[in-house]
Write the structure tokens for this entry.
Amino acid sequence: MKQSQTGISIQPLPGAAAVRYACVSATDLRKICEETGAAKGTLQSIWACDERDRDGGFRLWVALADSYGLLLLELPMTAENPEYPDVSDLFPAAVRLQRANRDLFGVRVNGGDYRPWLRHAAWPEDVFPLRRDHPADTVYPEEADRYPFVRVTGEGVHEIAVGPVHAGTIEPGHFRFSVVGEKVLRLEERLGYVHKGIEKRFESFAIFEGQRLAARVSGDTAVAFSWAYCMALEGLCGTLPNQRALWLRALLLERERLANHLGDLGALGNDAGFAMGLVQFSRLKEDLLRTNARIFGARYPMDAVLPGGVAVDLSNSGRRELLNALTPLENEIAVLQGIYADHSGLQDRFVGTGRITSALAVQLGLQGLAGRASGQAGDLRCDHPCAPYDQLGVRRVILTAGDVAARVAVRFAEAQESMRLCRLILEGLPSGELLVPLQEPAINRPGIGWVEGWRGPVMVFLQATSDGRIRRCHPHDPSWQNWPVLEHAIIGNIVPDFPLINKSFNLSYSGVDL
Amino acid sequence: MFRTIKQIARVGIITETAKLSGATLKHYTTLQRDIYSVFGRALGVRHVDAGSCNGCELEIHALNNAYYNLEGLGIRFVASPRQADLLLVTGPVSRNMLAALHQTHDAMPEPKWVVAVGACGIDGGIFGRNYASAGGVDAVIPVDAWVPGCPPQPEAILEGILAALVKPNAHTG
């Protein structure tokens, strides 16, 4: 397969995800990014690797999503001058990824935003903790933390600083609003507060155990991340799990999506002043979690996906219980959807609030659930379906209004679709082994997992060592793409609508801080 | 409006008695009265995520649902550490959250209690200690009770709150 203009040799990568790989020069990298951007492709992730122990250099990895799947580009860089071309003009989401690469590896672009991203005060500027020769447990004295926020000046402009600790039970992050009266002129996010060295930690894990850590990259996305990790590992081993195991993974993933959507739909009602919505949806979510505990042994089955299959099975009675619970839940959600639709106060808060137009969504690379509320059709379950989604015919949900109301409506529709998929899975569940043995993982190529989690596509990049450990694991959450878009969604809205707009995206902090 | 009222009436009251172990169950039954006799009001609980994966937060949310009816027991979540008697801390403490955790703890009036929620709060859990993670919560602030689990179930979190309150040598600053 050839890229149109560059003539680079592109190889398919083994595994369940549709991935092609190419080793490129800096010029080619930039050219391919330009071509992909022009063809409406998107940036999936950017990360780095330290290969100085193997060949004296660093690597930059860029994953682009296009109509064929994922295009994985590897750019070698020298140890002396680990510089790579800035692609943030093509893909705005690249900015923070590039800043994180500098903090963790000391690989950099020429120019661009010079500020640190994940490095606050825990390690000095000239220390790069993800380099292989940096010990995991070295602790540095606290540095001074003076982050230069962008100042907005003008008559009547003032700043509201919020966080990292927020008023509710949510993850920590800092929001700096520049406002005139109640109106927001600009929001600047500062994240990185829950950076706990996950990528470094992976390197101390045996490769057949890493799914446990992957499940805890973002606890609400445990099934998606552990599936993506196992998909990457199974690609390295050249083995596919049994169909039954894959169908059970999909069942768990759709139930994870459903649990999150139920929680969000309640919280969104609450944030718009309709506490009854929270009470009712929290009840439905609790019922779902208790059913999980009965059937799968855990309210949040974080360790249910294993390399080569799954750790849980479904008996006939368990299958009947899950099937029987679907129709009442569908009806309950439909009743609440009617109540939300009829509530003029609620709709007044939802409609037109925090709008991201389709054009802006394209420009900024909005992904996943939030993207599908702003006219971005991407859904891996439809675009590049891996088993069992290739047999389920997932119905894509897509709206264009791009406001809180649209993100609420996408959740309602996707919750119904997830229940339809659960029914198909439960009725068609094939028989077979839950776990298949895996061969030794390849060490001369990476493995990729790519799974549509409830927020959007999550990706895991995995490399093995020759002694059965993880050489490098990079998990990517779509929140990297969507956090910068939230800064745009609030512009021109009033400060009290921020919690509502923020919740309508409900992005992960842990998943991007790592 | 009619549909809203009908829904509330149809669902009715779903609150259950928490299934707790013997020791804490004894306190559970008298909890509301005991809290009132000491504080003259509800116990204020504040949560800080010091580096969690967000799993424990989901179960703290669940503790606030109608099945557990936490406020009915005289325990309510408050928006500011200034209003809080008890601090729930989740996660290993990330180095980037050190200052914020200290400030939150310092801002609470005496007497105050701290409950570390989840396996990570005990010793850093699966994330351990490294250049970015300071490990368990008591490496940073004094802790009165620990709640194991990944994530712990809502009832375990409630049990942890009760254990901190009834501990004979409870930390009072």
